[in-house]
Amino acid sequence: MNPVELMQKGGPAMWPLLFLSILSVSTIIERLWFWGQILLKSNAATNRILDMATRDWDMAGRIAAEHQRLPIARYLLAPLRLPHPDPEIFHLSLESAADDQLALMRRGDKILEAVIALSPLLGLLGTVLGLIQSLGSIRISDLGTSSTAGVTLGIGEALISTAAGLIIAIVSLAFFRLFQGFWFNQMRVFRKAGSELEVIYRQRWFEEEERTYAAPAPLPDSALLPAETAPQA
Question: How many distinct structural domains can be found in the chain?
Fold first, then answer.
């Protein structure tokens, strides 16, 4: 049975199911490309940024800016671009950036959730409509006669839409769970990288504070003047 015949025998519900399948496949392909880029490049970019932050804070910000296509780099860049922030402000900047980037990384999940919910229902609706059409013309007096021979075939064709809806929902659910696993893993990566960067910054902050307080206070101008000669008797 070719796809055209399948669409015809499945009934009118096959058209919205076709639309949902195209929507699901396009979302899955886009998400696979997105997560592939993250899994291949995020670790190297994160290690470069954190390693440079221990030596040159400004250079670490420039490296993060070079990798802005990666969510982890945009996350670390948010506090790195602040000019000498207080440690509390630094922490708040990390939290705010994490919320934004983690939310953006879940793009497409709502589409897959909608496909998972709607596909079985549309398939069941198509089956019910097909059964109504197949059984609607049968009279009780026709039972057991040759006039009901096509009913079995009609019922089988009506179940095509249910099968199609279940297949679409199962495939979409499998990839949805896969993307959720990637997202939870990235959440742990964000937490670890953010904690390491915050520790590095707090160490730099306290070292600068110690140097500031340890520096000798400047002498007043009067102390720099030569002592007056005592008057002679």
Answer: 1
Q: Is residue 5 part of a domain?
A: no
How many other C-beta atoms are found inside a 10 Å radius of the C-beta of residue 138? 14
DSSP 86: -
Question: Look-up: residue for tokens 């994160």?
Answer: 46
Helix (H, G, I), strand (E, B) or coil at 162: helix
Q: To 5 degrees, how large is the angle CA 22–CA 28–CA 32?
A: 150
The domain containing residue 194 runs over which residues? 15-135+148-214
Angle, alpha carbons 96-102-106 (nearest 5°): 145
pTM value is 0.79
User: Is there a domain that residue 229 lies in?
Assistant: no
Report phi then psi at 99, rounded to 5. Answer: -60, -45
Determine, yes or no, domain membership for 224.
no
Residues 130-160: tens digit of each pLDDT: 877 776 666 555 555 555 555 555 677 778 8
